Amino acid sequence: MTRCRWVLVAVALWLPGPLRAQGPTSCTVQLDSVGGVGRQIEVSPGVIRQFLSGGVWASCHGQPTHMRSDSAAWYSDRNYPDRNKADFIGHVWFEDSTVTLQSQTATYALRDDRLDAYGNVHLVNRKTGSDLTGPALTYWRAVPGVRDTAELLAVNRPTVRYRAPEDSAGGAYVIVGQRVRLKGNDRAWAGGNVTIDRSDFSAQADSAELDLGVGRGAFLGHARISGKGVDAYTLAGRHVAFRLTGRELTWVEARGHGDAMSKDWRLTADTIAFDIAHRQIVHGTAWGDSLRPDTRSTRYTMRADSVALDTPDQQLKEMRGYGSAIATAARDSLDSRPDWVGGDSLVAQFDTTTSGQRILSRLDARGQARAYYHVCGEDGKTLAGINYSRGKRVIAVFGEKGVQRVRVEGEGDGVYLEPDSTAQC
After folding, report:
1. Which of 45, 157, 281, 323 is least surrounded, with the fewest CB atoms within 10 Å of its CB?
2. What is the pTM of this model?
3. What is the pLDDT of residues 182-225, one digit of tens each?
4. Domains of the chain, earliest start first
């Protein structure tokens, strides 16, 4: 009987008008049950304090919104409605139509339907399955006339497993940052040494934003995104943007000191963009003024005002350079005097040998074209000569050991030097 009496007394104290905040709030808190004792104090006219213990169950009147904790306190000031709040202390549990939440303590501000939670916070989005763990967060509920979309702000490096509504069974983005903000079911922002991991890529940046509703996002400041799997790649820059199609990563772009790497080559430029399919780079472009595109592998380089790459199955097939383009081809990784071909435009094609080695097979330069290359003797070891040629078009064909033949078209000229007979290729 004692417990029931306290429940009835507490309900009588909690239900009248003071727990309804002034203004457009969606929640009029009512007490459903108290397992221990409760008392009310009127510290001054219109200023009321209520304290409850022994297990407290409360809800928003007429709504599927419920709260539970070991104890609770309510502070009401008739003259200052913005001070109306309820504190929940110990084993806090909260649920509404959008989220469920657990924490050590929480404060519910009635005026703006805001829940501040502290200590071992765990929140789950009931629609998408996204969840958040961290030391503290603020949850603004969707309230007609106040805000049409729920929002979250978590601080002190929370971890968010973020999913779009249609990805509830998988494809989560694991977001960690000093601050993480979520709005609705498909928008997220993070700041402060941010990391984002998903099954197909990982990223780091000073800050990041995601909009899964339109399928795009960006990493800002010291940004880096890396593909995962056998054909891994890395793209870095001051700013890295990306797009999604059907939740698959299909395009990435780095701006400001762009730097891209795959297992076969490295590309630097002011701006670098890649098209991606099946988690592999299939096409790329690069351009810039302060940092001209520079593509390098262990044996080949290309520099130009702009560069385009075709990489089906992430295997370099063709590279095109436009504007003061030049390409070099070393006979091996120790060659200090590589052959080179240059022109206003340049196309480099690559092929695979019978031994499985990926090699440069052809260079085609046009417009003020020129070539510098070593001519090897029949034994493939003795240097027969060094040739420098110019023309409107220069085509160089390569084998595993360097240039095999060169064809010059249109008003060509050049110089041929015969080296010492002991010189080696």
Report:
1. 45
2. 0.82
3. 999 889 999 999 999 998 899 999 999 999 889 999 999 999 99
4. 297-425 (2.60.450.10)
